[in-house]
Amino acid sequence: MGRTRQGVWLGLALLVALALWPLFKYQVGPLSELRLRIESVGWPLEGSVTYQRQGHGPQASRLSKDDLTLYDGHGLPEGVQELRIPLPRRTVAVEVALEKLSGRTVSQARWVARAPVLWGDPGGALAFEQHTDEDGTVHVRIPETRPGFWTPDVADVVMVLGTWWVLWLALEARWGTGRAAAFARRRAGWAKYALPLALAWGGLWLLYFPGLIGFDPLLQWEQVVARQFVNWHPPFHTWWLWLIAGPFDSMASVSALQVLMFAGLLGKLLEELGHWKVPGWARWAVVAWAALSPALGTNVIAVWKDAPFTWMCLWAGLVILRAERTGGLTVKAAARLGLCVACISLLRHNGPLVALPLMVSALWRYPGSRQRGTLAILGVGLTLLVRGPVYVAANVKPSPPLLTQVLSLHRLGTAAFHADTLPPDDVKTLTSLMPLEDWKRRYRCESVGFLIWPGSPLYEHPELLEGRALEMAGVVGRFARSHPDAFFDQWVCVTRYLWALDSMLYIGPFQPDGGAVDKNVFGWRTRSWFPALARPYTQVLLKASIGEPWQRILMWQPAPSLYLLLAALCGVLWRQRSPGALLALQCALTNTAAWLVLSPNPDLRFQFAAMLSAPLALALLLAPRLARTAAREAPGPRVTADVVPARDRDTAA
Predict the structure, then answer these.
(1) Helix axes of 252-275 and 306-326: crossing angle, nearest 10 degrees
(2) The pLDDT of residue 631
(3) CA neighbor of 438 nearest in space, from 423, 455, 426, 421
(4) What percent of the chain has pLDDT over 90?
């Protein structure tokens, strides 16, 4: 009987998934692209397109400047450029008129659909006809695009199988009786929280497909393509991008994996808070907070290094919370924590400043030679292994002076405004790097970017910085002693976004047209699955980032989350009478402390860990006091502990 009922649930879930597939296929997906290859031209083109959708008559329109962007380099033969013209997915025939080609012709036409198809020739060359008018306009006619619209693709398979699996487990968990039901119920504790988060963040991923891609990951991908790695951005994260995005030549796989990783980890954290007897409404409030916050959601789908860095910080917090509840750190948990320590060290240049306090506090808090040895060997050993032999084997070039001296350069920018009161040797140092006029013109107290970005003399001539670290540090030190007020004002300005409720803030590579990918040579751009929604939603986000103070505080500014986190952790420390819960979320605090010293720009992503930890800390504040049933020092691999009300007032919480 149980096996029969299991088959019923399996079949019912499959029928529902298949019934939803036509709606998914017809309504959901980005515009397709017609890609035309031509001989390289050095001027902007003009043109128009006429296309016919399935079941509709021909439609004509002029091509915009963005539609006629010419791509070259990555994946293209030398001397060839490519046009990527967005068109509706159900287009069956196309004719493109290209003006000002000066005798050039189209050499290849390809049709790039929503996702790779399961059969046929995905992305293969299309049959086309072309002719040139007397005025030089080239007409390219594609009588049939392929593959056909209803040809199943990878997205269809993922949708059907994913829907089938989730529905089947949900039915088994509710009404099943067999092994599948037991499997589903064991995971219902965290999956019920993870599913709405995955849907919310997955919706953002589709809205900004293939995700938020800023300047940093694009530079890292250039290193991947050239197979030449520089420790400007941590190579460990560059290799992570290569591992996940490489097989698909798209960052969409990275951002999609991050959605699943963050949803699953938040689900496990909320399940753990349930073991701490945090009220159910508080746990669901965390889900709502995380799902609805644009600051959190957009950072989940962003492919910069701060996302996996934050994930590792939260995983470390989960390990420590579980150790506090169960009374000690097992060897397996110590291994997990050691892996977190190593990854935190390797994912950001300031990572060791976060990883070292995490490891030291765990070694102090949890006894046991095996546990401590495992944690130290993995945490320190893996870090040294990667930064040493692995970097050498991969021929990783050391960090350039433009990066290692970025803080000194920013302070020198402040000193340039006081050049008339500086010693002559210090002025000579400044002018040897850049004329004083350039220092003053490019300097921004809140950001070092204009001093070091492309176009700056320091970017164009990095050799000027070679071997001068101590010289510049000396100038900065003397300036700080002679002008303490100016030095302090610069620090206040560059760190203002961390502690002020209203400050300048970079929220991501958003563009008014709904795009979220910085310009690049790879032809990557936003291909929203909901283009009608992407533009107005992005406009709302951008207006809120520069709008009224209450809008910035509610949606973007990280300082409110930091203050809520600090207040909640103080409450948890008082309520629990133990530093254990504080240690679980310490990474968010040590990361903030590091940025108070090292911050070069007002980037929201730097505080991703603090913003995601704040609602968790507020929920943990409602947990009753942890009362141990055995001493921490008791022998054995595991010491039991329970979460019970220490006083009557804790029961009400």
Answers:
(1) 20
(2) 38
(3) 455
(4) 61
47-51, 246-250, 454-458, 502-506: segment of lowest average pLDDT:
246-250
| 64: CB partners within 8 A, 6+ apart | none
Q: Are the beta carbons of 210 and 44 closer than 8 angstroms?
A: no
Q: Residue 526: what residue type?
A: T
- Residue 640 CA to residue 626 CA, distance in Å, equals 12
Show the 3-state SS of 87-147: ECCCEEEEEEEEECCCCCCEEEEEEECCCCECCCCCCCECCCEEEECCCCCEEEEECCCCC
The rounded distance, in Å, linking the Cα atoms of 627 and 260 is 34
CA-based end-to-end distance of the chain: 44
Q: Tell me the CA distances in angstroms from 262 to 418, 616, 623, 627, one per residue in order.
A: 47, 14, 23, 30
d(CA 494, CA 340): 29
Q: Which residues pair with 125 in a beta bridge?
A: 110
Tell me the CB-side half-sphere exposure of residue 54, using CA atoms within 13 A: 12
**Mind listing the pLDDT tens digit for each residue in 237-278?**
999 999 999 888 889 999 999 999 999 999 999 999 999 999
Six-digit token string for 334: 């110590």
Distance (Å, whole) CA 456 – CA 451: 6
Find where tokens 């959190």 sit.
296
What whole-number distance in Å separates Cα of residue 473 and Cα of residue 459? 19
| For range 355-368, the mean pLDDT | 95
Q: Is 132 exposed, middle or buried (0-12, 13-18, 19+ CB in 10 A)?
A: middle
Residues 500-526: b if buried by 16+ CB within 10 A, e if exposed: eeebbbbbbbbeeebbbbbebebbbbb
Q: What is the pLDDT of residues 160-188, one digit of tens each?
A: 888 888 888 788 777 777 777 777 677 67
Distance CA 370, CA 43 (A): 67
Residue 21, pLDDT score: 83
Cβ-count burial 246-257 (b if 16+ within 10 Å, e if not): eeeebbbbbbbb
**CA angle centred on 289, ends 287 and 291, rounded to 5°:** 65
Q: What is the distance between the alpha carbons of residues 37 and 72, in angstroms, rounded to a whole number?
A: 10
Whole-Å CA distances, 446 to 411, 490, 498, 501? 11, 8, 12, 15
Euclidean distance between CA atoms 443 and 493, whole angstroms: 12
Contact by Cβ (8 Å): 111, 123: yes
Taking the C-alpha atoms of residue 320 and residue 466, their distance in angstroms, rounded to an integer, is 44
Contact 315, 308 (CB under 8 A): no
Neighbours of 621 (CB within 10 A): 22
pLDDT attached to residue 426: 92
Residue 230 has pLDDT above 50, yes or no: yes
Rounded to an integer, what distance in angstroms lies between the CA atom of residue 117 and that of residue 226?
A: 29
- Asked if 503 contacts 602 with a C-beta cutoff of 8 angstroms, the reply is yes
- Token pair 């000194």: residue: 408
Cα 348 to Cα 351: distance, rounded to the nearest angstrom: 5
pLDDT at 456 over 60: yes
pLDDT greater than 70 at residue 5: no
Residue 639, pLDDT score: 43
Cα(628)–Cα(612) distance, integer angstroms? 29
- Separation CA 302–CA 182 (nearest Å): 36
